[in-house]
Amino acid sequence: LPSLSLPSSMHLIQVDSVQRWMEDLKLMTDCECMCILQSKPISTEKDEQNELILSSQYSTCDNLQLLLKRAWIISTELTRIAQKLEKNKWQRVHSMTVRVNCHVRSMINEYNTFNRNSSEEMHQFEKLLIDKCSEFTAFTERCIQTEDEQILKSMKSCVNETLTTVAQYFGQLIELVLTHEAQNLMRQIELSDSVYITESAISSLFSLTQEGAHLCRIIAKEGGVVALFKICRQDCFRCLYPQTLRTLASICCVEEGMHQLEKVDGILCLADILTDNTHSEATHAEAAAVIAQITSPHLTFTQHLSSFLENMEEIVTALVKLCQEASSGEVFLLASAALANITFFDTMACEILLQLNAMKILLAACSDKHIVDTPYSRDQVVTILANMSVLDQCASEIIQGNGVQLLMEMLFERSSSGNSAEVAACERVQQKSAVTLARLSRDPEVADAAVKLSCIPRLIKLCRSPTERNNSDSVLVACLVALRRLAVMSPDGLEDSDFQQLVKPRLVDSFLLCTNMEESFV
């Protein structure tokens, strides 16, 4: 069975099982009703039928969510049918096939009640899918009426083939539906002069982007990035800029979104927004979020970065100012994340940051617990410090801003909630603070300050105690490197056993020793 590109499946699976059942109960009971009604309308009048089957109180966004939930159920059922078929559970295969048949009919019926202008191509796929589902049900019904193993064996390949075709038609229909809905939203955004209608369309578009990368690709392909940047260039829609930029950040997680951004000079538009002081902080923050997204070091497509370099100085200057004037932790996080990403791909960014006294601004922000209030924010700050620490001038800035003290504190970073994402962020903070210390300790003044602040005992503790570093190998390697650098500058700061085990051997041997170390070590 080919994999189906159903964007809603990823986050729906993570919902609590009881909550999931409660949400699906209506859909399941509708399905059982469909077994009797076989998708026949209650009324012969089309308008009456529409009112009876689906209440008009639902918005387009609600209807799409219903469609995506139904599609997720069908996708899950098709996967389960393939599993039962593999085990020759014919009775289960047939009952599930009947259920899928009904769900497909319900989905098509529901969609047609709120979409009255479907294309001929869509109607053709609907008919193909319904016919193939009926054929599939008839096949499996014949299978449960025979006990002859040879006959069943010969029919199994036909059933498998039909199942694959049903999945293929279903995937193509969903693709058509989602493309059609994206086109409708694009049309509303491009043609409407009404702030209310445009806001509603952007809101629906943003909801779609949260359903996964596949939907973001469809939206980008249908001109979503172009339409949204058009909004960002019209003063009459200024109140919609934050919402529009948030949607753009979501779409630009896929390569197709990046290509569109490049075509419409999106980076220049973002630079204009960031440097325009008449915009609200919320608008600046969301523009920073787009910058953070398109400069992510995890992206494999970087064609857009050539035009980014042309505007980098303006953008970096605006982002530093946003960090300095941030009124909340969220704004600081978005601005600092953008800066952190920028420092990865060009050393010129680090030089610009030095000229702008960014080190002093970031270190000052870390002392304000209202602004730098999470491990995620500290992760961004220490990333910038680590990348800037390759520059020789950075050491004096760190000393003046009491940065060694901050790096020492970051070596103690621990999660308060136990949340896996927060734990991972804490590990990154520990690792990068150790990396920064190692790089900066080539300067005797920084190394001396680190020794006086008892960095060496803390690094030894992180190396020897797996729980202190949450069993992170990357933290261990960084701490070993930092410890060795400080040991060169201050050899008297280590016990002989620490020197013999953590400094003198090859790095890989010390690493293996520490990873095998028992927690009972004294």
UniProtKB/TrEMBL annotation:
GO BP annotations, alphabetical order: apical protein localization; asymmetric cell division; establishment of mitotic spindle orientation; regulation of asymmetric cell division
CDD domains named in the record: INSC_LBD
Protein name per its UniProtKB record: Protein inscuteable
GO molecular function: cytoskeletal anchor activity
GO cellular component, one term: apical cortex
Gene3D superfamilies according to UniProt: Inscuteable LGN-binding domain, Leucine-rich Repeat Variant
InterPro entries given in the database record: ARM-like, ARM-type_fold, Armadillo, Insc_C, INSC_LBD, INSC_LBD_sf, Inscuteable
Domain Protein inscuteable homologue C-terminal: start-end pairs: 70-522
Source organism of this protein record: Aptenodytes forsteri (Emperor penguin)
Annotated ranges, domain Protein inscuteable homologue LGN-binding: 13-57
Record's signal peptide: none
